[in-house]
Amino acid sequence: MVPGFVDGHCHFELTCTTTDGWVAVHTPPFHSLAAIAAEIRSSLDRPSGDCEWLLCRSSFSMQEKVEEQRLFTRHELDAISTERPIAVFASLHVASLNTPALRELGLWHSDAVHPFHGVVHRDEAGVPTGVVTEVFMMVPVPVTAEGFERAVVQHGRDLFNASGTTTVHSMPENLGQIEQLRRLHAAGTMSLRQRYYLISPGVATLDEADELSRLDAEGSMFRFGGIKVFVNGCGHDGEGVPLDDVKWSQESLDAFVRDADSRGFQLWLHSLNANGVRMAARAILGVTPDGSNPRRHRIEHGGDFIDLADLSLVQASGALLVTTPQFLHSMTSDPSGPRAPLRTLLAAGIRLVGGTDSTGTVPSSVSVLGNVATAVTRQRRDGSAFHPDEAIDAASALRLFTSGSAFGGFSEGSAGVIAPGSYADFVLLDRDPLSSDSGGAGATEVLATYLGGVQVWRNHG
Q1: What is the DSSP string of 334-345?
Q2: CATH number for the domain that contains residue 83
Q3: Computed from CA positions of residues 131, 148, 358, 414, in that sequence, does the dihedral angle turn out positive or negative?
Q4: Which pTM value belongs to this model?
Q5: Does residue 49 carry a pLDDT above 70?
Q6: pLDDT tens per residue, range 1-46
Q7: For residue 441, is it within any domain?
Q8: What range defines the domain where residue 83 resides?
Q9: Fewer beta carbons within 10 Å, N or C terminal of the chain?
Q10: What spatial distance separates the first Cα and last Cα of the chain, rounded to whole Å?
């Protein structure tokens, strides 16, 4: 028996709706653009409800995993349909679009301004090739209100509870979803605890967050958490070429962090490269020069992308660093990918928060035990161990997703522990995940998950 897992960074809502409302074209099982195109074409008659878009989910670095060694072009997607907008996402940050999609998003013309500072690849004539970055916040959500509620209730159980997760720190896609989730929790139909964070700019302004922070300030099941800010995007141009795609100057980021901090908000500062981690640490240091960091501001993915030359800066800021171990095998096979120096960071006294970053891009990423196993083995797709000297022991890896992630959401003592006065959220496993003799976390299965002492999921296998 172990404490219920606390997923310290996940797109819970998107994971659930993706499962039902998007075309799954992950690599693997698909190995070519031709096979993926056939799957998309066969889905054209899928009912679209209020959304005419056909949205498809593939994998990180899709171009590395298909025979053609590239992403779809606009022409190839136009050959599937010139009537229905099509987007094939290779992570939330990278997509291939057909002509109707590019036109609907206002990205067709060469003088178009990308509202989220993304990249639109164009040919020599200035016409889009189809490959873009940072359009996820621009596409419609392809699910009805009823479909959303059905998805989060069902998949909260069969995906998250089935993985032993009892608490999620998540990022709803819009304010309407927050209202729906509030009603579901009030009705007692949700099977996990949620602390939600508002993407700003994008989902909410700081003034809107002020209102929600008062409305959802209390409660053990559903409550406001803070603000998520994108310091940068994916750190490359969509085709794998490194790009420092920062969304802010240091001065403007510092000003935003000061404003949010003065309102009492915890901040999540997203970065997928070392410079963004550096900028985030500087901004946090600016509001907590003594390093105490009472708001527990965090650098999302900082534990994966930090340059250890900046370790003293991060230490001085007191920033929490979030790590997603599955990135080691899912994101890229390039040696310049995320190094995740977890052993060094723990030895330096950095507080680490474990998050699956589940979105639907990597279906298996929802498994906390899978992430724990990767933190221990650091095994990549080809079976090799990436920077094995940075491996951590199983107990430390498990703490990333229990007490460590609970601390990252101000719920230490209640979640992520089994102790008098805690929530009584726990998981029954078929073996000891800390024992290498029994195969460790990677071979461990969840038998049952309990929320507040009540069974919410059981393995009937």
Answers
A1: STTS----HHHH
A2: 3.10.310.70
A3: positive
A4: 0.95
A5: no
A6: 999 999 999 999 999 999 988 999 999 999 999 999 999 999 998 7
A7: yes
A8: 17-138
A9: C
A10: 18
